[in-house]
Amino acid sequence: MNRPTAAQISANRRAQSIGSIRLDSRGELPGSRRRSEVPAEFRSVEQAPAAPTRYLDAPVRPSTPLPVAQVPATDAQVNFLRTLVRDRAISDEAREHAEQRIARWDAWVTRGRIGDFGLSKSVASAAISKCKEHPFRSQTAPVAPAVSEQPRREVPSPEQLPAGRYAIENAEGELRFYHVWRGTERPTFVKLYVEHGPDSSEVPFKSALSILARLAADPATAARRYGAEIGSCSVCSRRLTNRLSRLLSIGPVCGGRFYVEDDWSAIKESGRERLRAAGLDPKGEVDESDNFDYSADLDI
Ligand SMILES: [Zn+2]
Question: Which of 54, 119, 200, 254 fits a disulfide with 235 by CB distance 3.0 to 4.6 angstroms?
Answer without folding.
Answer: 254
